[in-house]
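Protocol step 4 of 6: record predicted structures for both targets in the notebook before any analysis. Target 1:
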Amino acid sequence: MQSKSSHLATSFILLLVLGIGVLGAVIFYERTVIERFSKTHDDDIAALKEQAVKSTPANSKVIATGNGLIVTKVNGLGPTYTQYCDGTVMLGDDNKTHYCIGKNTLIFSNGIATSTIATDIATDAASAPELADIVWPPYSPAGKSNALISYQTSSCNISTDFCGAGMAENSYNFVLNEKDGTVRKIVNFPGTGKAVWSIDGVHALFIPSTCGGAGCGTSEIIGYNIETDAAAAVTKEKAVGEREFIMAGENGDTWTSVYWITDKKFGATIVKKDGTQKAIYGSL
C-alpha cells in the first residue's frame, strides 16, 4: 500500500514538473513574440520619423499637422499632412492661431510615398494659407483612398480667428490619393451642405444651405463627382433643408432626406406646404 502511495506521489511530482516546464516555455515564447513585435513596431516608427525628417524643407518649422486614415495601415499608423514654414511664424491676436509669413509648404507622407501638395508665399495674414480640414469619403471596393483637403487662405481673419457672415461651409480644394500620394486641385466642391456619399465614395449629394439674415431661399439637390470635379443640380424640385426651415420659422417645401439606392441612383423626400410627402428619384 505504501509503495503504491509513493508511486502516485512520484507521478504527481513528475506531472507538476512537466506542467511547470510547459508553462515556462509558453511564457518564454509569448515574451519573445512580444519583444519581436515591439522591435518591429519601434523600427516602423523610426522609419516613419526618418522619412518625415528627409521630407522636411530646410530651415522650416512645423505649423500644423493632421493625421488621417490609410487603407493599408502600418501597425495602426496613418499618413501625415504637415504644413511647414520657411519664414516667420506669427501668433494671432487670439493667442492660439499660428500662421506663416514667408514660404508655406504642405507635405503628405505615408511612410512610403511623400508628396508636396502645395507651396505658397505669404506676405501678410490675408495671404497666409491654413490647413483647415481633412475628410475622407468612404473607400471603394477597388481600394481608393481619397482625402479631401481644405488648404487655402480663409475668409476668416487668420490673425484674429474671426469669421464673417456668409463664409462657405465647405472649402475643400485638393484631392489626394493616400495610397500613391497623387494630388490634384479641385474647384467645384459644393460650398454648402453636408455630403451624403455613395458607397463607392465617388459621388456625393448635397442639400445646400439657403438661409441667411434675410430669410430662406430654395435649392435643388446638388450632385458632385469627386473623380471629374463636376457639380450640378440633380432635381427639378427646389426646397430648403429641414434644419434651416425650422430656424427660419417659415412655411414652404422642405427637403427632409436624401439617400443612395445604388452607387449612381438616389432618392430624396420633400414635404410640401400642405404636409404631404413626395418621393423623388434620380441618377448621376
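Target 2:
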Amino acid sequence: MWKIQIIKIMVSLVFVMLVGCDAHQADAVKTHNTLKILDIQPPVNVPLKTGQKIDVVVKLAYELESKAGTVTLAVLRSDGFGSKSLTSTFAIIHQGKGELVLKGEIMVPKTKFLQVRVPLVPQQRSDTSPPVEVRSYQVIE
C-alpha cells in the first residue's frame, strides 16, 4: 500500500516539474541573431607594441530578430591571470539587418596578447546564447 502512495507522489512531482518547465520555456523566445566582423583595424596579423596608443575600429554586420539589442566592443588584457577591460563602448541596434562601426582607444599595456570581444545581446529573454565575435592581437615590447 505504501509503495503505491510513493509511486503516486513521484508521478505527481514529475508532472509538476514538467508543467513548470513548459511554462518556463514559454517565456523564452527562440531567436536567430547573427553578428560578423567585416573589418578590424589595426589588422590582427600585425603585432601591437607595448606603450603604443591605438584606436581599435571594428566594422560589423548584424541581423537581429528581437525588437532591440546592444552590441558591445570590449578590448581586454589577457595574460593568463584573468582579463581586464581596457576600453568598452556599445551601440543600441534595432530589429533587422544592418552594419555599424564601433571604436575604442587604448594604450597597449605590457602583456602577451589583447582580446577584442564583440557580443550582440538582444533586449529580451532568449533561450539561445548571444553571438560573440572574438579576435586577438599579439603584443610585443
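Step 5 preliminary note on target 2. The chain has two domains: 1-30, 31-140. The longest strand covers residues 53-78.
Proceed to step 6 after PI sign-off.
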